Amino acid sequence: MERPATEQAAWPGPGWLRIAVLAGLAGGLAAAAWNSLIGEAVLGQAIKLEDAATKHVHAVAMTEPFTRREQQGGMVLGELLLGCGLGLLIAGAALLAGPRFIGPARRGWLALIGVSAWSFLVLPAIAYPALPPGVESSLSIDTRQLSYVTLVCSGVLGATLARLAWLRLDGRLRAVVGAAAFLAPALLAVVLLPHEHVATPIDHGLLAHFRLVAVGSQAVFWGLTGIAGLWLIDHQVGAAVQAARARLARR
Q1: What pLDDT, on the 0 to 100 scale, is given for residue 41?
Q2: With CB atoms 3.0 to 4.6 Å apart as the test, which of 79, 97, 185, 202 could cross-link to 28 if both were Cys?
Q3: 235: pLDDT confidence band, cut at 50, 70 and 90?
């Protein structure tokens, strides 16, 4: 049985900030690479269709504020900022919840990544999948943004309720109530939020391809963020445990 000093060292504490931010940056770099290598071709097709549907193509091209290369640089910077921001959110959630709620560092990290992917990737992809440039939604931008935030909050709420049910109940009731608590807020949000349809004519093959690439980019982001976080946890927590054991041995 581990002594209290080593048990305390096994929890990263403020080290969650370093772990989550660096892992988020790694995920952002991976997503940027995916977008550059795979997503760029699909995005280029969508832009060509958008230009073809514009009456004053040459006039629009002359007034574009950024070149494609500059836009790609902005995409990389945006992915890194997104990774850093989401890393801060995950670290804050870990510090707020604590080890009693989310469990040991590795298991807690995987749980946080899973909840984040469910809330930020799966639910929005089901209700409001990505739209290519120039393709308009039947919903206003404000409605779409508010609905997206609501979906994310419903995913986080469901995961929190499910964890509370798991901690407080026993046996089969724990699994049944936990599953119901996890799914209920998300299902309600998907059903009650305004539905969307594409308001601009577009080739359905291109639309499906674009959405698949967009989902793939986010899946790469969360996957690499999770892997990088596990690696950082193993190194940081492992070093902290060894240092704690060394201090105990010298006593």
Answers
A1: 80
A2: 79
A3: confident
Q: How remote is the C-alpha of 52 from its chain's centroid?
A: 34
Q: How far is the C-alpha of 209 from the C-alpha of 65, rounded, in Å?
A: 27
Closest CA relative to residue 135, chosen from 72, 55, 203: 203
- 118: three-class secondary structure by DSSP: helix
Q: What is the distance between the alpha carbons of residues 32 and 44, in angstroms, rounded to a whole number?
A: 16
Helices (H) and strands (E) in the chain, counts: 11, 0
Identity of residue 146:
L
| Residue found by looking up tokens 């995005």 in the block | 43
- Can you give the pLDDT at residue 69? 73
Q: How many CB atoms lie within 10 A of CB 191?
A: 9
> DSSP string spanning 8-26?
HHTS-TTHHHHHHHHHHHH
pLDDT at residue 3 greater than cutoff 80: no
Report residue 128 CA to chain centroid gap: 15
**Residue 82: DSSP 8-state:** H
Its pTM stands at 0.83
- List strand residue ranges (DSSP E) for 64-218, in order: none
Query: According to the per-residue pLDDT averaged within each range, which of 17-31, 132-146, 186-200 is highest?
Result: 17-31
Mean of per-residue pLDDT scores for the chain:
85
The whole-angstrom separation of Cα 135 and Cα 128 is 13
